[in-house]
What does this fold into?
Amino acid sequence: MSKVDKAIVPIVKQALNNDAFRDEVITGQESQLVLMTIQPGEEIGAEVHDDHDQILVFVEGNGQAVLEGQVREVGTNDLVFVHAGMEHNFINTGDRPLRLYTIYAPPEHPAGTRHDSKAEADEE
It folds into this structure.
């Protein structure tokens, strides 16, 4: 598939249909688009990306964003900008999957990365 073929993505539709914990959609030289689904009671896990920013856009569900230890409620249509060096975690506090897409700049994961579950992601 060419770069042009992958340039237009129905991202909200794909995010709503995604059941994988992490599924890379497209990776460029300077950024990357990844789908994520956090199951009820699960979380991404506290992390820090020292060398890149991350933008998360929530398309379904409810949860909490924990940024530098401060907890904020997040849900459908919210965007969270995580600056490089900021400790962050996202927790699904609802009773249905928390679905989102995220943009890393620069890319965080190898192209083609897919983890069907959080356990699979942690294993890798």
Observations:
- DSSP finds two helices and nine strands in the chain.
- Strands lie at 22-27, 32-38, 53-60, 62-67, 70-75, 79-82, 88-92, 98-105, 114-115.
